[in-house]
Specification:
about 350 residues, single chain, mainly alpha
Amino acid sequence: MLLGGRLLTGLACGVASLVAPIYISEISYPAVRGLLGSCVQLMVVIGILLAYLAGRVLEWRWLAVLGCVPPSFMLLLMCCMPETPRFLLTQHKRQEAMAALQFLWGSEQGWEEPCVESEHQVFQLALLRHPGIYKPFLIGISLMAFQQLSGINAIMFYAETIFEEAKFKDSSLASVIMGTIQVLFTAVAALIMDKAGRRLLLALSGVVMVFSTSAFGTYFKLTQDGSNNSSHVDLLAPVSTEPVDTSVGLAWLAVGSMCLFIAGFAVGWGPIPWLLMSEIFPLHVKGVATGVCVLTNWLMAFLVTKEFNNLMEVLRPYGVFWLASAFCIFGVLFTLFWVPETKGKTLEQITAHFEGR
């Protein structure tokens, strides 16, 4: 029963992570699309933080029951929401599309009606020859891959261990502290998204992550240089050749770099790949294209999690985090040279940009 519940939960989360960003991008007008699109990630990190807090006072069975509440509200409230106007137009339901637009926007001002004849197509592999298709495809897939290769899971894996080595009185608070930082900086990103722009936040976020993962790798290099020469990696073992005060001081270096990484990730590489995924694809390939992007994200998360311990054995911990720093550098360069700015543009204008119009 537990395995069945996990399977259904994973299926539902996968569908929601695909549909929610698309739905929000299609019902939002350009001036607030960044804010509303970022709220997807904001709600995710708020949910994670609430789960951490509830887990401190509830046993897992009651925690599972509590998890039923948000989906129940979503099920009830979505009954009041219309289908997106763009989808209704592809179904040749213009009157219903205009009614949905009136409900969502209050007027048709700023609405750029998509060309139904060109959008009402079935996805075919031959479409990948067109710049308006393959360019956003490459951007969406690359952003999802770089997000997972940045080292976010590795950082989260070591949260409690690092707080313990820093002599934090209650190391179980590490998850709550990390969750709080994520919520605060994701909220900041949502508020400034439509002013600062996607590219700027991605680049700044990547630079912060480069410095923090480099510092994290340096911490492991300094602490493990004094340990035994065995190839076995044991991060929980104390560093016996260093004075306690020095070890604690270095652990606080790791705490600082870890908090900096979480803040940097939350400002850019956490919410923006999901937001851009929902913005850059033409309507007639959006379902397949976003599905491939979401699959890439979860597949990379699975591979990173599965192979993490093996990488730690081969590269040592400092090597793993320096490798993550290198991926962050590639992510910044990719952003600067490939990712277009979508701030303030309609979805039709973004499609026209990729098509060279």
